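so my prof wants the structure for this chain in the tokens format not the other one, which i didnt know existed until like an hour ago. anyway here's the sequence
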Amino acid sequence: MLALSPETHLFLLNAGLLGVAYFGVYPGLRVKTLGRIATIDAAVTAMAVSLAGAWYWGSDVAFNLLIFQTNWLIFTLVTLFVLEIPLVVWFLRKYRSDWRDDDS
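here's what i got, hopefully its the right format
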């Protein structure tokens, strides 16, 4: 069995969740508005934090962010944000959604 480092474990979790969101869920939305995307994105973030917490809460595992060591929560949020930037740019270019149109 392949043993993954804690960083790789959470990186793959985040990449998988964002992949499902940006290549499955978001394109499948009939109406793509900022409110709907933000709501789903909040759920994706909560799912990432919940799963990472289930695996690493209470552990003394240090996560390396190249320039400093941190805990699982900060590592999860930072890597999720960094992975999401190119996906947001790609999604906006591909779908050219009118983000001013809200769900209200």
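also thought this was worth mentioning. The first strand starts at residue 63 and ends at 64.
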